[in-house]
Write a structure and sequence with these properties.
About 40% of the residues lie in helices and about 20% in strands. With about 500 residues, it is an alpha/beta fold. α3 packs antiparallel against α6. The chain binds nicotinamide-adenine-dinucleotide.
């Protein structure tokens, strides 16, 4: 393979991560795949191949799960003390920091995301998440309980609970925030003493493979972290594997549904972090200096490829024209170009197929009679670029209002009355995020109470922190990631009863 670009500005470490072949990380070793061979991964800014990655099959899935099982049941891992796990996680965070620039460059080349984004989110947020979860390692605590046991008079009992790691976790991740999602799966595993097999998205596996190498360097015992690569069949084999105790999945609602159907009959634990169609609501009293750029970047951020992208905009009628004009002005001025170019404000979609799918949605909206305020066409370039789009005038039932597009496509609607618009704000099958832009406490409070979403942003959109639990309502998911809730989902309760007399 020879690289289509010479990537002259890349660091030495980032360059050495490209134009090479990757094996599977199983039981602390790099292993060739059992049978299926290798597949290419691409740079969407020109469409050329940049590396070749192992395609795992069921034999490899078996080997990875067996390594994770062994490490959980018998390795040094179950005997490691909480403060040792904490120190190890902090060491890993430091190693990610030391490799930060190379990791963000690799992520940008593989995903098309902007360098400032991969620096701040994929690298920066990963480090913060690891440090946050490291702190929990030494604070996992059960309870003691004074018991009544009314049918045993004259005897005294004390109850207690211990929180035990859930076991072998399958961590399956999407392509839109690759390193960060892998760390979301890894950090609570390490904090609680579980083990994990991570299966990154087929489009963007490179930084997760780099993470495996850094785990090795940090001294994570063999088998505690395993990384296998390949497509949805690999994920499906992992989900179905009888020795996997818990599935932590982030991806589409369609895949989440398939996973739940396989996991539920086996009584496996699962967390599903799924798609969204998040509303942005601008009330009559909103501060437009905040709300207009807020609404624009809610959909333009990460090229609309965010699960919480603010893809439906509801604006009070008195402000509608000003907001639409303001958002359009920002979107039209966006400089589109490669993620590595510091002048770019929007990079390519993750690949050409996805770019075409997003464009087809815009075309469908036009055919349905919507007026296209701006954009919606591809860019004359070999890269997977498109211009962001804004459509007005679609009925609430239209697919563009109801379905996740996962690109920079916004649909907007005016409303007269906040209470009346809530039916439409809540009127999709999703319930991931939502934002309200207002200066009035009552308006904000009523919105917060009534909106069906796992996270509500007030005068901001899509702000995440490892301390804040994150998870979707309705068809946006099951369970929560991050925060204490994300940690707790990797633990199970074992209760004890002591007879004292
Ligand atoms: P996807 O569902 O196609 O794939 C996600 C991952 O699951 C990939 O690794 C894929 O190989 C694997 N997979 C697919 N089908 C599977 C199956 N049946 N069994 C096991 N594994 C399977 O999603 P994608 O296109 O990679 O990512 C985009 C989606 O992810 C969007 O819907 C987005 O909203 C969602 N997402 C959600 C969150 C969140 O936290 N809620 C965050 C990021 C992305």
């Amino acid at each position: 393979m020879s690289l289509a670009n010479d990537y002259a500005g890349l660091s030495e470490d980032a360059r050495s991560a490209l134009d090479r072949r990757y094996e599977l990380f199983i039981g602390g070793e790099w292993r060739a795949p059992a049978a299926s061979g290798y597949h290419a991964v691409f740079d969407p800014s020109h469409g050329g191949a940049i590396a070749s990655v192992a395609t795992a099959d069921e034999t490899d899935v078996d080997a990875a799960v067996a390594a994770a099982r062994l490490a959980f049941d018998e390795g040094p891992w179950p005997r490691m003390r909480p403060h040792e796990r904490e120190a190890l996680i902090l060491r890993l965070a430091d190693l990610i920091g030391a490799q930060g620039e190379a990791l963000s460059q690799i992520e940008t080349v593989n995903s098309g995301k902007l360098l400032p984004n991969t620096r701040a989110i994929d690298v920066g947020f990963s480090i913060t998440t690891l440090r946050y979860m490291a702190g929990w390692s030494t604070k996992i605590a059960g309870k003691t309980l004074d018991l009544s046991v009314p049918y045993a008079p004259g005897m005294a009992f004390t109850g207690f609970t211990r929180l035990r790691p859930v076991g072998v976790v399958a961590g399956i991740t999407p392509w839109n925030v690759p390193l960060c999602e892998a760390v979301f799966k890894l950090a609570p595993v390490l904090a609680t003493g579980c083990t994990v097999v991570i299966k990154p998205a087929e489009q963007t596996p490179l930084t997760t493979l780099a993470l495996a190498r850094l785990c090795q360097e940090a001294g994570v015992p063999p088998g505690v972290v395993n990384v296998i690569t390949g497509g949805r069949e690999v994920g499906a084999a992992l989900v179905a594997h009888p020795d996997v105790d818990k599935i932590n999945f982030t991806g589409s609602t369609a895949a989440g549904r398939q996973i739940a159907a396989v996991a539920a009959p086996q009584m496996k634990k699962y967390n599903l972090e799924l798609g969204g169609k998040s509303p942005v609501v601008i009330a009559a009293d909103a501060d437009l200096d905040l709300a207009i750029p807020g609404a624009a970047w809610a959909i333009l951020g990460n090229h609309g490829q965010n699960c919480c992208a603010g893809s439906r905009l509801y604006v009070h009628a008195s402000l509608f024209d000003r907001v639409i004009e303001g958002v359009a002005e920002i979107a039209r001025a966006v400089r589109i170009g490669p993620g590595l170019d510091p002048a770019s404000q929007m990079g390519p979609m993750v690949n050409h197929a996805h770019r075409d799918r997003v464009l087809a949605f815009v075309e469908e909206g036009r055919r349905a009679g919507a007026s296209l305020v701006y954009g919606g066409e591809s860019v004359a370039d070999p890269g997977a670029y498109l211009n962001p789009a804004l459509l007005v005038g679609l009925p609430h039932e239209n697919r563009l209002v109801q379905e996740e597009i996962f690109g920079p496509v916004l649909v907007a609607e005016r409303f007269e009355e906040m209470d009346a618009v809530m039916a439409r704000v809540n009127g999709t099958s999703y319930g991931l995020g939502a934002s309200i832009w207002s200066r009035d406490f009552e308006t904000i409070n009523r919105f917060f109470d009534r909106v069906e979403a796992g996270i509500v942003w007030i005068n901001n959109h899509n702000t995440l922190d490892p301390a804040v639990p994150f998870g979707g309502w309705k068809e946006s998911g099951v369970g929560m990631e991050l925060g204490e809730e994300g940690l707790m989902s990797h633990l199970r309760v074992k209760a004890g009863v002591v007879c004292r007399a």
